[in-house]
């Protein structure tokens, strides 16, 4: 008989991490996680248990439903007064590749999107140095006049601060921002997308995007929108010069702002806050006498709120931070799961397929994500794969990815209401 060589050792699966027992009990009972808990979830080798906990929460909220929408992104200009180090999108006026779209071109895009069945336009751009505030109002009005049914989700907080400046309301502080948002809302703005948050930390800010607004200012812009009844979303661009504790703190700050916004409504609903005023909306169903979270304007809710957390991995290519490695797939899964667990008062968690890839998005649906974004078509900012800005996917591909991952695809509008569709014609389902 041949002598067998000694079997190679197989590395054992990650061992049981006792720190996760207490965290899992909290998740099961609907108790808020601390920043220390968030860090333990980052440090543990038992990443699969972290993903399983996030999956428990997403199924508690949404069962096996995974949302997608039919939308079109419009980047109206890439000309920007700033030069953030991580940004490969911006150009100066006379630089190769600089562009600005006219109102007429944008309206044509909106009409084309509507003809293809889009329910939403997602519109953001650089901080254009010369376009006047009136251009933005006129463009929103023209978009709505062309397609009244379309929802316009537009402008990151840093763009809105720029609009406040050029509208000459810069000296009016918070009330000036509310006035700008009121004007934009009256012209057709339906909600805010949530970009430009990056990571709320002064060191990170000064190292990677000095010149852009700081975290407290970003949060103020969204607070103003919520007070006006506009919903918004929140991103976290991670994997560059920040560290994991800074990501967890970013999540905590978003969560605290959502507590502040929803506290009055929740008390009236009989939803109890914890001893620190924390408002957990992702616990077991028995904790919620009525609706966990209705649409603005329903059930006594007079404000808007953060709908979705969208963790965005940083892609260094062509940016000033090109030397840095992009975050790995496992880090992306883990970050998404931790965002689901820490942001216990956010109803939705998105795996933005453009930046995560569709195959990775399938995995993310089992790790806390309940939304994959939409058909997109043109996206000029950052993408995980491919050249150029044509980043279209079809409803067939999106729904196939969702089904392959074991979930049931449901089309939503921008406010997460279910959509009933007959070809390009659609309405919100009852
Ligand atoms: S991230 Fe935004 S603000 Fe910064 S340079 Fe790019 S487009 Fe301009």
How would you describe what is shown here?
The chain has 430 residues and is an alpha/beta fold. It has one domain (34-423): Alpha-Beta Barrel (TIM Barrel), CATH 3.20.20. Helices cover 40% and strands 14% of the residues. The chain is built from 14 helices and 14 strands. The chain has helices at 19-29, 35-43, 47-62, 103-115, 133-146, 157-166, 173-187, 202-208, 215-227, 244-269, 329-342, 353-356, 358-365, 395-404; strands at residues 65-69, 71-75, 120-124, 151-154, 189-191, 232-238, 306-313, 348-349, 371-374, 376-378, 390-392, 408-411, 419-422, 425-428. The strands form 5 sheets. The protein has a 4-stranded parallel beta sheet with strand order 2-3-4-5. Strand 3 (120-124), helix 5 and strand 4 (151-154) form a beta-alpha-beta unit. The model has no long low-confidence stretch (mean pLDDT 90). Iron/sulfur cluster binds next to loops.
In short:
The chain has 14 helices and 14 strands. The protein is of the alpha/beta class. Strand 2, helix 4 (103-115) and strand 3 (120-124) form a beta-alpha-beta unit.
